[in-house]
Amino acid sequence: MAVCTAAYVFSFVDRQILSLMIEPIKRDLHLTDTQFSLLSGLAFSLLYSFMGLPIAILADRRSRPLIISIGVAFWSLATAVSGLSKGFVHMFLARIGVGVGEAALSPSAYSMFSDMFPKNKLGRAYGTYSLGSFIGGAAAFVIGGYVINLLKSVDTVALPLVGEVRSWQVTFLIVGLPGLLLALLVFLTVRDPDRKGLKRDTDGGVQKVALRNVFAFLWGHRKTFASHYLGFSFYALVLLGMMAWTPAFYIRAFGLTPTQAGYLLGVVVLLANGSGVLFGGWLIDMLARRGHPDAAMRAGVIGALGMVVPVIAFTQVGVLWVSLVLLVLAMFFASFPMPASTAAMQVLSPNQMRAQVSAIFLLISNLIGLALGTTLVALVTDRVFGNPKMVGSSLSIVYGLASVLTIVLLGTGCRHFRRSLALEKRDAEAVKGIPAREEGAAR
Question: For 60-73, what is each residue's pLDDT tens digit?
Answer without folding.
Answer: 778 899 999 999 99
